[in-house]
Amino acid sequence: MINDIYNRRILELAADIPRLGRLAAPQASATAHSKLCGSTVTVDLVMEGDRVTDFAHDVKACALGQASSSIMARHVVGATAAELRQLREDVRRMLKDNGAPPGGRWSDVAVLEPVRDYKARHASTLLTFDAVVEAIGRIEAARAPAAAE
Known about the structure:
- This protein is an alpha+beta fold.
- It contains five helices and three strands, in the order ααβββααα.
- 46% of the residues lie in helices and 17% in strands.
- α3 runs parallel beside α5 (122-148).
- The termini are far apart.
């Protein structure tokens, strides 16, 4: 049964992660860490207005964290803050509450659906989604004082 979560597509995604590395001048960075397995994902973001214009990440994670990060890197540029926040909630709901996987450009996330039966693997699967939302929050917080002036 555990072979379901380490299926061929997950392993293909984990083996081919785009946008690896760090950005020279990110507007914000965020790191998410799973205490259970030790996986860590650090993301760098640049946004113009409400839209992601550049992204890079350092992924030191298990195959599930790598596959999630691979999916994120393939589709994050051009996504809005609201879309990415909704994505994180959709993935969390898919894993924890038997929700449907996201659709549209994020339909690849459906490959992670079998992880819902392995609670111990949820944290590593969610790392990239949590880190991206945290980085967005940091960018917005940095802009808030400028907007108040």
